[in-house]
Amino acid sequence: MKCALKSLAYNMYVYKPLVWMRKKKITVLMYHGFYQRDKIDGLESFGSRWCSTSEYEKQIHHLRSNYNVISMDQLVATLNGDQPLPDNPVLITMDDGYESNFTLAYPILKKYQVPFTVFTTTDFVGKGQLLWADRIDTAIRFIENPHLNICFPDGPEIAFDLSDLSARSLAAQTIRTKLQILDQSHREIVISALEAQLPKETELPPLCRPLNEEQLTEMSKGGLLTIGSHTVTHPNLTLCSENELQFELSESKKIIEETFHTECHSICYPGSAYNQLVTKASEKAGYTCGFVIEERSNSLDTMNPFTIQRLGISRDLSLPEFALRLCTR
Hints:
Layout: H1 2-11, H2 15-21, E1 25-31, E2 33-35, E3 50-52, H3 53-66, E4 68-70, H4 72-79, E5 89-96, H5 100-112, E6 116-120, H6 122-127, H7 132-142, E7 147-151, E8 157-161, H8 165-180, H9 184-195, H10 213-221, E9 225-229, H11 242-260, E10 266-268, H12 276-284, E11 289-291, E12 298-299, E13 311-312, H13 319-328
Parallel strand pairs: 1-5, 1-13, 2-3, 4-5, 5-6, 6-9, 10-11
Antiparallel strand pairs: 1-12, 7-8
Helix pairs in contact: 1-13, 2-13, 3-5, 7-8, 7-9
């Protein structure tokens, strides 16, 4: 019923006056990776961070027709007091640095000439080291045993049902949630134990493959891409020591600037884990702005440049839901 009402509202252009009413707000959209509906392996159903190319193109067309899609450089210039933003600004961001940003999303963005930012995790993009959440998803998806027992460092052993894809998706989500609050050393113990149960011939799923330097360079030279930092190793920054925090913030910025010969002004905190120490350290490291996930738009007059809020765009969001969500948050 709700979907039908949203479709009706969309077809009647109810969103049009709502877009006009929020013209002085900036909306920042968060994506991760992308997939094609005719080429799936089951991992795209693990969580909501994957977006199909068919839905993505509809969303980009809607943005191009109803909003002013800005670049990160435009936002930074505004934060520095150098220029105002246009009405109804929207900023498109992608987290982590997946290969599908280049192979699937970039052709669509190039077609509509829409600027975007990729927040890169430099060990993932530069060294191909899988992100910890993707290592969990890959292990749970391809472990052959339909039953799994895990002993977590902070509690008793837990049994998981892996009898079908839905159960595996739920198990992966539960494990990710429990490990998110652990430091990297304890997290690694659990993930390594999971990976030890994988068949030896397991290949890296296409969905989890990282961008490489050549792909990022090509997109950057195309004039649409801005590269931001998502740290070096994608840790929970609130659990880092002072030295670890400084390394994650400063080293990722340095790698991006030296590798791609560009200035890196923006940082996205992994898992939206931040506190005052993290934001202060980000400013000290030389960033102009930092991004979080708060599921709402930002008022240009009152937003904190180091806690800029973003809307996560989930896998199952229809175009009417997407359009109404943008103008009502």
